[in-house]
């Protein structure tokens, strides 16, 4: 594993494409570079399989960079009586916190009570949550009085406040964890290439035996042979399934029903606390969070059906109005549209029931689905970030059960730290803007690069841009400002201000056009609040 004294593994694109050109057969080809695809690639590589992963855009460009940043066991699933799902998620929460201590940390949540029955009602349920966590618990649930609740949440609405309940879950940096998974898989021998779009599948005797892909920068076409192909494109999995169905002469029905979640980011003074606010039931029955993260506060989220599968979905005005309106009920100083620093939306791949596919379909308790078609295409979608590792194990188990891969024992990633993992958690840095803390054991190496003494914004240096270009697969201004550092998600206007210097450094490092125009258009979208 990378240490302070080791140079990280280079991710230069010419070398990556040269490997793609080599005629060889992979054990596993993964389509999609989000949480599930990256987790699958890492698990397979750690078992000794020969793995290639292809992503049409950037790693975690879609849903996997747009989470509420929570590593959680699922309090809502407990209320639904789904005990097995909660147990599994609590176990995976512990595993993630242990394997990525520089990117994840325990976080205390407080549910304020405005009715006398709420504290005991929710408190008893959360005590059950503690019991299910057992030795993996992060802290004991506490019943709070009015003053203790206000000490935890200094800006909570005090009128009518009766008390509250404090419980523990986790928090993480989703896009940086995705990058850590990619880089850890690469260290295990996997080949991962972003901006390489899969355009078709290849067959031999009616069975999938590889795929066709295209480098989006040069247009170069590649044909990749693989014993097993996993379709892990998240909300976009149906596109490849449809191609597979056409090849078999049998149309397939869509398996994904997308849902859109919107988040709003405001300054930390709206909730100057290391505790998160959690409202278990808003006016329409949804859950609302106010979560401190990287020096800002995330408010959200919504849950709205969505038919369009955009890579940059836009927040609808009713979603924004809902979040601002509900926040005003629980915070003394209500955020207004003018207070929004960034607004972003993501698509959740909710899975439809499959009762008509002749392939091997299995609906499993983790709320994700794995399907193996007659041709041998393995598709996985659904689930959540917290259980990405368990999902990856299930995908590989399906591959082995279908005789697409030889049987090899699992559990190899339970005790596998990701790149940058530190001996001790770096929890104090999670509320610092940008922060060198997210590089973990590689922080000293980043500080050794040119530009480490030149800040583009508080905590964000030129050296971080160079590190992203050399070691983190970054190709564009957006890659750097959205996912290598999180500035676009924290303050879109500030991101637009620093973008020209980021472009200059990327041109110097990569010798390509880093697409600043496209980024500025996205930054404008993130900075614009839809008006009624």
If you had to describe this structure to a student in words, what would you say it looks like?
The protein is an alpha+beta fold. It has four domains: 13-63 and 176-255 and 353-401, FAD/NAD(P)-binding domain, CATH 3.50.50.60; 85-170, no CATH class; 257-351, D-Amino Acid Oxidase, subunit A, domain 2 (D-Amino Acid Oxidase, Chain A, domain 2); 427-527, no CATH class. It contains 16 helices and 21 strands. The chain has helices spanning 13-21, 35-46, 75-79, 83-99, 118-133, 146-152, 174-187, 237-248, 317-330, 388-401, 443-447, 462-471, 477-484, 487-490, 492-510, 516-527; strands at residues 25-31, 51-54, 70-71, 104-113, 142-145, 163-172, 191-193, 196-204, 207-215, 221-231, 256-267, 275-279, 288-293, 296-300, 304-305, 342-351, 360-363, 368-372, 378-382, 455-457, 460-461. The strands form three sheets. Strands 3, 4, 5, 6, 11, 12, 13, 14, 15 and 16 form a ten-stranded mixed beta sheet that branches. Strands 1, 2, 7, 8, 9, 10, 17, 18 and 19 form a nine-stranded mixed beta sheet that branches. β13 (288-293) and β14 (296-300) form a beta hairpin. It starts with 12 loop residues before the first helix and ends in a 5-residue tail after the last helix. Residues 1-5 and 355-366 have low confidence and may be disordered.
């Amino acid at each position: 594993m990378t240490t302070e004294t080791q140079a990280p593994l280079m991710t230069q694109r010419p070398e990556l494409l040269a490997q793609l050109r080599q005629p060889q057969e992979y054990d596993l080809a993964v389509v999609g570079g989000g949480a599930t695809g990256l987790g699958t690639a890492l698990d397979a590589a750690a078992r000794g399989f020969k793995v290639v992963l292809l992503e049409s855009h950037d790693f975690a460009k879609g849903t996997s960079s747009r989470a509420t940043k929570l590593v959680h066991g699922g309090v809502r699933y407990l209320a639904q009586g789904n005990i097995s799902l909660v147990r599994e998620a609590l176990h995976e929460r512990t595993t993630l916190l242990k394997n990525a201590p520089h990117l994840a940390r325990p976080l205390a949540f407080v549910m304020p009570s405005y009715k006398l029955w709420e504290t005991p009602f929710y408190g008893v349920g959360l005590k059950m949550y503690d019991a299910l966590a057992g030795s993996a618990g992060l802290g004991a649930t506490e019943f709070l009085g009015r003053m203790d609740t206000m000490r935890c949440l200094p800006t909570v609405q005090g009128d009518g406040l009766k008390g509250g309940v404090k419980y523990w879950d986790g928090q993480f940096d989703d896009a940086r964890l995705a990058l850590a998974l990619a880089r850890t898989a690469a260290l295990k021998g996997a080949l991962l290439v972003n901006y390489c779009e899969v355009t078709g599948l290849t067959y031999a005797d009616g069975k999938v035996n590889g795929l066709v892909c295209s480098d989006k920068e040069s247009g170069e076409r590649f044909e990749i042979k693989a014993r097993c192909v996993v379709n892990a494109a998240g909300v976009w999995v149906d596109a490849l399934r449809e191609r597979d169905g056409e090849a078999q002469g049998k149309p397939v029905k869509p398996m994904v029903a997308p849902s859109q979640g919107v988040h709003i980011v405001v300054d930390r003074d709206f909730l100057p606390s290391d505790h998160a606010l959690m409202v278990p039931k808003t006016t329409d029955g949804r859950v609302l969070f106010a979560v401190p993260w990287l020096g800002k506060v995330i408010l959200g989220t919504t849950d709205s059906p969505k038919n369009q599968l955009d890579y940059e979905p836009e927040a609808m005005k009713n979603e924004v109005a809902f979040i601002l309106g509900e926040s005003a009920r629980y915070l003394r100083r209500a955020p207004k549209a003018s207070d929004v620093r960034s607004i972003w939306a993501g698509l959740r791949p909710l899975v439809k029931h499959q009762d008509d596919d002749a392939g091997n379909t299995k609906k499993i308790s983790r709320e994700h689905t794995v399907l193996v078609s007659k041709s041998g295409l393995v598709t996985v979608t659904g689930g959540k970030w917290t259980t990405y590792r368990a999902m990856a194990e299930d995908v590989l188990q399906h591959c082995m059960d279908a005789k697409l891969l030889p049987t090899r024992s699992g559990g190899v990633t339970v005790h596998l730290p990701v790149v940058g993992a530190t001996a001790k958690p770096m929890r104090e840095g999670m509320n610092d803007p940008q922060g060198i803390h997210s590089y973990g054991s590689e922080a000293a190496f980043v500080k050794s690069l040119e530009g480490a003494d030149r800040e583009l914004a508080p905590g964000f240096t030129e050296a971080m841009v160079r590190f992203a270009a050399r070691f983190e697969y970054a190709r564009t201004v957006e890659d750097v400002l959205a996912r290598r550092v999180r500035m676009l998600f924290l303050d879109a206007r500030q991101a637009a201000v620093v973008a020209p210097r980021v472009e200059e450094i990327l041109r110097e490092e990569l010798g390509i056009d880093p697409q600043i125009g496209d980024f500025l258009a996205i930054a404008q979208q993130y900075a614009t609040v839809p008006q009624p």
